[in-house]
Design goal:
alpha/beta; Alkaline Phosphatase, subunit A; nine-stranded mixed β-sheet; four-stranded antiparallel β-sheet; 14 helices; 17% strand
Length: 471
């Protein structure tokens, strides 16, 4: 009997060792300011064959939303798996926190950033490009490529050279760039990732690559602009009197970038769209290099790929060219998860319609990789949805902006409450462009009350309260 038990124990030990060896790798791809214009999301004029192929091999989320429509706070939420307000950066703090401040804040909460948690459980961590607001603290990963510059145009004196927009100090401008493609920061980050995938790794790896484009400035090589002839570009939905029924408080989210009216009057709208789509296609090419390298590597059958954007970006919808707002164009993001162990019919896109949050990525990857649950996370594992895309999902998706607004997407409705108590309510079932504000319509009184209650839930109440604290 003792011999039998010993043999059984040996078998279990060997099985455990096998599982440890076979932990899946993770490729973690972040794209800056990428809205939902990809082919797999239904845009029929964008050229994104590599992201489309990835979406066809896994699942993609049609209604994924950021928790903060600003780069740094959104990324802090993704990497921590927590709402930004939970990290302790109150209204007295700057919106954009340094990477080390985020790292320390998560530590103080007793948790770890996502890649640290994987490292704790035996993973090799590698990072390139923009992941937190800048990169990650380089000493916190095994290998860092760092992050390159934004890639500007320069004049003969080495000063930044603007081409089309001179109306503000922000990064927005658009047109061709004088740099060669191989000199671009994103090109170098992709090549770095490709090289790592050609190497032998003695542990499962967590490989992160963050791409800058299509974040402004919208400068890209002429060949990418030429892919989008101006006379063939279709304009996004636009309503000239869109602001007739929105609260004045919404203006508090607007930046100094041009309005759609300006773009129309100055014949720049299609040129701006051309540059934005050209930047997306450039980034798609870089993503394709990584995916091709994975396909050629010994890791292809045991590597999960996740792709996400930190927030959306208006490209003329609702009179804006920006992020920051409480509207769908700012909060909605592309998100793809491919696990080769969960087979989908190759070439068949599997969309998930449920409202989900970017903070759901962290717990989802833990479950997919068989790692222990991190009980401090505030998101939900999406594994049930990945396994059954038609599963009924009743979780809300929140986005906050301190001293500005709190907004929630639940079912087909988006509800927003601004700092002064003014409100918006849209029903995406028949108003996907958010043109008809129903907040003051008595017919929807019960819906408004229910949505208000969602903003009072314990895990998000602080975010709601901070959205109100305005002098």
């Amino acid at each position: 009997m003792k011999l039998l038990l010993s043999a059984s124990a040996f078998i279990m030990l060997m099985f455990s060792s096998l599982l440890a060896v076979e932990k899946p790798n993770v490729i973690f791809i972040a794209v800056d300011d990428l809205n939902d214009w990809e082919g797999f999301m239904g845009n029929d004029q964008i050229i994104t064959p590599n992201m489309d192929a990835l979406a066809s091999q896994g699942v993609f989320f049609k209604s994924a939303h950021c928790q903060y429509a600003v780069c740094g706070p959104s990324r802090a939420s993704v990497m921590s798996g927590m709402y930004y307000h939970s990290l302790g950066f109150g209204t007295e703090s700057a919106i954009q926190q340094k990477d080390m401040a985020v790292y320390k804040a998560v530590k103080e909460k007793g948790s770890l950033l996502i890649y640290e948690y994987f490292a704790k459980h035996g993973y090799k961590t590698m990072a390139a490009g923009k992941l937190l607001h800048h990169h990650v603290p380089e000493e916190t990963v095994d290998i860092s490529h760092g992050r390159g510059p934004w890639d500007f145009n320069y004049d003969e004196n080495g000063e930044k050279k603007r081409l089309n927009w001179f109306g503000s100090k922000g990064l927005l401008d658009w047109g061709p760039i004088s740099k060669e493609e191989h000199e671009m920061s994103d090109y170098k980050a992709a090549e770095w990732a490709v090289d790592l995938l050609s190497q032998k790794h003695d542990k499962p790896f967590f490989l992160m690559t963050g791409f800058l484009r299509p974040h402004t400035p919208l400068y890209i090589q002429q060949k990418y602009l030429d892919m989008y002839p101006l006379d063939q570009i279709k304009l996004p939905p636009y309503k000239a009197d869109d602001y007739d029924d929105i609260p004045k408080a919404a203006e508090d989210t607007w930046n100094s970038y041009p309005s759609t009216t300006w773009a129309i009057e100055n014949n720049q709208w299609r040129k701006m769209l051309q540059a934005y789509m050209g930047c997306i296609t450039f980034t798609d090419v870089q993503i394709g290099k990584i995916l091709e390298a994975l396909e050629k590597s010994p890791y292809k059958d045991n590597t999960i790929v996740v792709l996400w954007s930190d927030h959306g970006f208006h490209m003329g919808e609702k009179e804006r060219f920006q992020k920051h707002t409480a509207w769908d164009e700012s909060t909605k993001v592309p998100m793809i998860i491919k696990d080769p162990r969960i087979r989908s019919k190759r070439g068949i896109k599997t969309p998930i319609e449920a409202n989900v949050e970017l903070i759901d990525i962290y717990p989802t990857l833990l479950e997919l990789c068989g790692l222990p649950e991190n009980k401090l996370l505030e998101g939900n594992s999406l594994v049930p949805l990945i396994k059954n895309p038609d599963l009924e999902w009743k979780e809300p998706a929140y986005t906050f902006r301190k001293e500005k607004y709190a907004t929630v997407k639940y079912g087909t409705y988006r509800f927003t409450e601004y700092f002064d108590g003014s409100r918006e309510l849209y029903n995406h079932a028949n108003d996907p462009n958010e043109w008809d504000n129903l907040a003051d319509d008595e017919t929807y009184k019960n819906i408004v009350e229910d949505m208000c209650k969602l903003l009072q839930q314990p895990d998000v109440r602080l975010g709601y309260e901070e959205s109100k604290l305005k002098e």
